[in-house]
Amino acid sequence: MRTSTGIAPRIARSDLQRIRRGLALPALLLACWWAAFHFHWTDTVMFVPIAKVWDTALRMSASGELWRSLGASLARDLAGFVLGSLAGLALGIALGLSRLLDELVGPTLNTIKQISLFAWIPLISVWFGLGDTAKVVFLSLAAFFPVVLNTFEGIRSVPHELVEVGRVFALTRVQMLHRVVLPAALPSIFTGVHLALIYAWLATLGAEYLLTSGIGIGNLLTDGREHLWMDQVLLGIVMVGLVGYALNVIAGAIETRLLRWRGSSTGQY
Question: Is the per-residue pLDDT at 2 higher than 50?
Fold first, then answer.
């Protein structure tokens, strides 16, 4: 009892210590940013004080422009992430289960994945224009490859002993996939989905920056650059970082929670 009751305080202290260490560098950067203008170390128009960025954030929040831009970007990000992840999951499972399909499609897929993601933008813009459809297609492509590759690797890495146990219990192919293969491959699959979520968000900003039709955080950055509104540019950069960090934390928490059964089941044996 004494050992178990001491675990929670130790975990809490460890989490607080990790948070403090993680906040140390951002706090230092903010302090340097504030000091640069407070002590008149710089007077360039290409950089603005924190207070001006904060005022711009309040103004754009009150007008709703910031939230409309953020909502549009997140909507595109979610649509592209879901479509690309589902397609990658389906193809990854098919390639992992079928040696013949892997031999037919694998070489072509490995060749296509070497092409830079942004090299597809000219072709996508010709086929789908500059609107949301083109952006979602681009984001789907960004999410597709990490999911398909990690799903394939996860299925091919399933221990042969587990498959033999399934055969001993006379499981059908569907039961084998549902009860043996997919559970064993879940860690790798979730890694691909996690990467897809990050890549899709990064690609969202690239798509909005290069395919400039519509609203979004990327377009907010573009407008700030064209008019030299550095407070708006810096605000956009901060928002991009905060959203990316939040997505990463949420994906990590979901992955940990959904895979918790592996640790608990291991501990029972």
Answer: no
Question: What is the spatial distance between Cα 47 and Cα 32, in angstroms, rounded to a whole number?
Answer: 13
Is 0.70 surpassed by the pTM of this model?
yes
Residue 143 near residue 233 (C-beta atoms within 8 A): no
Torsion over CA: 32, 34, 36, 42 (sign): positive
Q: Which of 238, 242, 246 is nearest to 52 (CA)?
A: 238
Which pLDDT tens digit goes with each residue over 217-236? 888 888 888 888 888 888 98
What token pair was written down for 189? 């699959």
Q: Which domains are present in the chain?
A: 52-260 (1.10.3720.10)
Q: How far apart are CA 148 and CA 144, in angstroms?
A: 6
Give the pair of three-digit tokens for residue 208.
Answer: 């909005």
Q: pLDDT digits over 201-216, tens only? A: 989 888 887 777 678 8
Burial annotation 240-254 (CB, 10 A radius, 16+ → b, else e): beebbeebeeebeee
